[in-house]
Design a protein that fits this description.
Length: 180
């Protein structure tokens, strides 16, 4: 296969992204923090592969960092030093390997946003908010690299995540009013 056959790469990248999309949706509908991050690790690893087909070097780097970071968060091992290390690596390497202009920098923004949120946000409610913001950043990025499957999934998942967040908030209010 000629790796630089862009139309074929776009098709193959979208097929691979479809599988990542399924895992992404699962990460947004569960209400268990560890399970959500487990799905996020798997999704990032799949998107690492699809990013190669889209020739997105910043996408590959940020997805590898996301998988490692999410694995650490899942196991409650993300320290401030590691969070800072991920941010510094991203800030140094992403601009160097970026070949897509401003759109290529969106994964850098997304990885930094979620790394900061992963470190500071500990409740499922705020984790869901961070996921939704991240989904919207990546939706813009994915449309820019012709990953239509991921873009559509990011938008759909943001909506599903928002509904799930509203249900969680409603259930919390209902539980607190019962306990009063």
């Amino acid at each position: 296969m000629n790796f630089l056959n862009l139309p074929l790469n776009i098709i193959l990248g979208n097929i691979i992204s479809f599988f990542a999309s399924i895992v992404l949706i699962l990460s947004c509908v569960v209400n268990d923090k560890r399970q959500a991050y487990k799905y996020q690790v798997i999704e990032a690893l799949i998107l690492t592969v699809s990013s190669a087909f889209f020739l997105s070097w910043t996408g590959i780097l940020t997805m590898i960092i996301a998988a490692a970071r999410n694995y650490l968060v899942m196991n409650e091992k993300l320290s401030s030093k590691l969070a800072i290390m991920f941010i510094i690596i991203t800030l140094i390497i992403c601009p160097i390997i970026n070949t897509m202009g401003w759109i290529g920098l969106l994964p850098m923004v997304g990885i930094i946003q979620l790394t900061i949120c992963n470190y500071y946000m500990k409740t499922i409610k705020w984790i869901k908010v961070a996921f939704i913001v991240n989904l919207l950043i990546y939706a813009v990025y994915f449309i820019g690299i012709y990953d239509f499957v991921s873009c559509a999934t990011q938008i759909i998942t943001a909506i599903i995540g928002f509904v799930s967040l509203m249900k969680l908030i409603y259930d919390e209010k209902k539980d607190s009013s019962i306990n009063e």
